[in-house]
Amino acid sequence: MNLTAESHRVPLSDGNSIPLLGLGTYADPQKDHYSKLRDCKAFHYTGEMFRTKTPKGSCLEAVKIAIDAGYRHIDGAFVYFNEHEVGQAIREKIAEGKIKREDIFYCGKLWNTCHPPELVRPTLEKTLKILQLDYVDLYIIELPMAFKPGDALYPKDENGKFIYHETDLCATWEALEACKDAGLAKSIGVSNFNRRQLEMIMNKPGLKYKPVSNQVECHPYFTQPKLLEFCRQHDIVIVGYSPLGTSRDESWVNVSSPPLLKDPVLNAIGKKYNKTAAQIALRFNVQRGVVVIPKSFNPQRIRENFQIFDFSLTEKEMKEIEALNKNVRYVELLMIMKRLLLHAISYIGLDLRQFKEESLTFKILLSHGSEIHTFIPHAISLVPCELHSFQNK
User: Fold this and answer.
1) How far is it, in rounded angstroms, from Cα 10 to Cα 17?
2) With left for phi above 0 and alpha for psi between -120 and 50, is residue 213 left, alpha or beta?
3) Which of 50, 163, 248, 341 could form a disulfide with 360 if both were Cys (CB 3.0 to 4.6 A apart)?
4) Is 80 a catalytic residue?
5) pLDDT above 50 for 148
């Protein structure tokens, strides 16, 4: 694969293409505003009513710097609360004559409260209104689980527990297919789907378009070999989020995980090429055909992350990095894991009064050995987790 800064797109199964390197735009909400974020009115969001840990305008400047540096792929989402800045940056660069709209690949995401088919198109249209763009290049189902539909993005009951909602992923997918037919999305895909969930979509009667991509966590400590091979066999491109393994948002992330960028192997290889450990980690994935979307609002890091097309790793170095895999998942998606544990408890028939929502652990469940092993196939079909804790027992 001959990759250059100017030409590093890979084909999608629907005839479109995606740049292998993109800019992630997730912005951590300030803790004093997190409760507002959880209770916000989804369809009244204007982009001005929430604060994040990054100052207002940071995303705008980051996207403009990225485009100037050569990025043509921007990854965003409605729930990042900065799509208005992303759209403004794209439009300003088009007005400057730096790019044309067709040069930019923008990925948006369908949030958990919007899975019912009748909500899919209005939600995408809301995203397009915020972006002030006519279409997105890729629209994906962000998670294979749903919250209760309504105004609150993170609906909770009177006890502060998430309110989940049964979802028909096939019906949601059909609504995405209609959005593609309407020209609102050039391509459609999924995120955080496991093999069974992908098969559910692909084996759906009357399938019109299969997912072109699956966005999942992927980096040298979590190389996703089985999922990557399955997706390759079915012409589904893996898009790796957290490719540098450095996110530290406690609501989503296992902050006790080892820091990837301090790994001695990555740093030793980086020294050979006069590159950073981050550049080596990014090059590793793009060289094996995995799209990466490192998030940064730091101008220097944005530019550094793009400088991965002037060298290539040897086969020996690729194998050395592959050997670093520890199945370390930084983004544990704790809200999904809690739901999984509740399903497990219900399946086994335990008394829910034994548990407190914030202290559910695998330990108690593992004491029910044979029963939890029976539950595993059902659990895997529910969430995008490999459940190493269960399987290793």
Assistant:
1) 5
2) beta
3) 341
4) yes
5) yes
